[in-house]
Amino acid sequence: MSKLIHQCIYLFLFLWTGILTGQNRLEYAVSRIDTSLLQNAEAVIRFEETRLIIKSPREYVQQVTKAVTIFDEDSREALVIVPYDKYSSADLVSVFLYNANGKLLRKMKKSEIVDVAAYSDNSILTDERFLGVRSFGGQLPYTLEYKWKTSYHETLSYPDWHPQRKKESIEHAKFILETPQNLIIHTKTLNADFTYKKETDGERKIQSWTLINVKAIPREASGPPDHEILPLLMMSPSVFQVGEYTGSMSDWKSFGAFLYMINKDREKMPPVMVSLIKQMTANCKTPKEKIDTMYHWLQHNMRYVSVQLGIGGWQSFDATYVEKNRYGDCKALSTFMKGMFREVGIDAYQVVIRWDEENSLFPDDFIYNDFNHMMINVPSENMWLECTSNNLPTGEIDKDEQNKKVLLITPEGGKISRTPSIPDSLNTITTQDTIFATDPMRISGREEHHGNQQRIVRSLYYYASPEEQRKYFLEHCHLTIDKLDQLHISTEKSGSSSSIAYDATLSKFGNVSGIRLFIPVNSIQPPHNSCSGNTDRKTDFISIDNYTEKNDIYIALAPDYVIEYLPSKSFFEFKGNHYSVELNLEGQFIHVHHQITEAPMRLTPTEYTELCAYNTSVAKSNSQMIVLKKSKDNARHPPNGP
What we know:
alpha+beta, C8orf32 fold, Jelly Rolls, 3 domains, eight-stranded mixed beta sheet, disordered N terminus, Transglutaminase-like, Papain-like_cys_pep_sf, DUF3857, DUF3857 and transglutaminase domain-containing protein
């Protein structure tokens, strides 16, 4: 056996012995970390071993032993937490604290362990809990060394291994999977060169994946999702058992069949609802009219409450419970909606989806339960319904649900599909503002939002009080408002548009210098700058924006001012993004027409520098000044409006 192998075995035994006994650990000294692992790192994983021991399709044990050096107090690694729920038990075995030189400072006392609910919000019902310790850290940098164990007696899925977060480096990390020889566990690795090893021990199969000296990846705004750039070991059971049910993740059809089975017949309507449904749809002539009527009834009569109880959080409350309590989570409301449709002969499927801005991890060749939400699909009408919203029009889904891969839960099992999206051409914002340079100065404006650009306006209309609406408007207005005289927010029931109308008194508009007044080309609706200023990116830049904004600003010339300088028109474009501005004198008004189009894009770090150059040009054009000069010989009457 080589000298190197002897040294590796000695180091492993030394690490393991130290972790169990809590001695001074000179190998944890910060000075011993390779300098290449310190760049961009707020924490360095010195040692980790996660062991997953699968005893049967129903039971497994997870053991974690870890040592991590913390350089930033905001690092998530500074929190020692152990998740569990009603299907499991947890034990936080030990926590040790070492200083920058590896000297043992203190050991966790059992009295310091807290046991808390995962969510404190009363609107969330869950059986998820955490064991953890609070305020255990010392003077930076320091090292935490801990060990915990969880035992699960029901299995729907296995915990994936995420050995690295952004801004973390790894010295040594290992995952060990122990399974019965006859139990198949599907595995898939992403984004790293894992060292893989497989062996047998009697009736047990042992697999391991190891990472050594992995550098930190910076946390950058608008970067790729973690599952595209961080090391990941995914696992899914070929067979699992939870409650009275046995399921499979061998393929999407099988997993969908399990979800269908655990929710079967839970949509059955109580007699009172059967009568009500017949009554409310009696005058409806088409299936779409029936769907619209029942969907609006659900929106106005049921309340959304997040529930993460039951079988893996995926078994719905039955329809009788929902009708009695008048609330439900996404599963319960979707199942209830499905049951209402069934009473009038309309078939609908439950749909599981990852509701997020980012695209979910949804491989075709690996069954991975990354879903966090349920909605409804009506195949006969090619209609998708978000049952937790009380303001979306019938058949319209949220922006972050559009164009997503989903799994339909059908009687035949799971079927992969994709949600629709609103065409980019329909996602628009149109504004018109008129500014009167009187004493006092005034502004009168209106915004029209269409397509997926209505989310904020709808939220203000349905959820905010008049005072909250005014507060939001003032906080997001780019002008200096002395008094908001009128504010009116509305939305069309059809979902075609939402609007904001306002009148306000300004305390300032532009800047006066001597006899000149300087007015920015667009100080009312400045374009969004997609550049963070960091032109030394390491990861791709991703933008999902897809809209066009048109602004018309009319600036009334004051009676004693004349135009000295009017900027010329500008036009810039970059990979589907467009910006233009044009200024004209129309009667006694300066008309500023501004248009910007944002297109979805994914850019390499090199292309990102080109985007920054584009945004710089836009910003310069937008900050150009209209120059007005005071002239007593050109007094005019103030205009009334364009």
